[in-house]
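W.,

You were right to be curious about this one. When I first looked at the sequence I had no strong expectations either way, so I just let the prediction run and decided to look at it fresh. Below is the sequence, 186 residues in total, followed by the output.
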Amino acid sequence: MPRSRSEAPLRRADLPALAGAVIAGAGLAPPLMLWGLIRVGGLEGSLLLNLEAPFTMLLAVIFFGEHLSTRETLAAALAIAGGALVGVRNDAGPSSSMAGAAAIAFACACWAVDNNLTARISLKDPLQVLRIKSLSAGAANLSLGLALGERTPFAPWDRRSLDGHRRRAVDPRAALASPHARAYRA
């Protein structure tokens, strides 16, 4: 993988941090967030997503020896308390709302792990780190979606999808008759 000459390359010793960041931030957090957002309201979900910053601070202090000022500690405590209050709020029933809130909070904790582990390799070539994390995240989430039976808008291995794509690419009238074009014109 090409990299900039002025940036330090990833080394074998960096792989555990990179793997942990990929697993937590790309493999676990997005599905947890989506699962949780289905089960809570929009306002509740958006407020709960604010837990990522205090969780990142908390992990940095506990595991990586970072220091917080009194104001930073108070701000993180208030954000966590607000998240706890939102999680306890109960519009959609006790099990679904609490389960959704817990899933979103856990997704934020996974992103906090990702943030802290990525910070450990932040002096390495950022393009190399970005490529690995992005490709891993895309492959993991695509695999999970396909394993759960989701379909892609264009699946090259699906003959019907490929034929329809070719027909729209060759015949402009077929492109205008596609469901996407009809929805756009409506």
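Here's what jumped out at me. DSSP finds nine helices and no strands in the chain. And, maybe more interesting for your project: Residues 154-186 form one domain.

Coffee later to discuss?

I.
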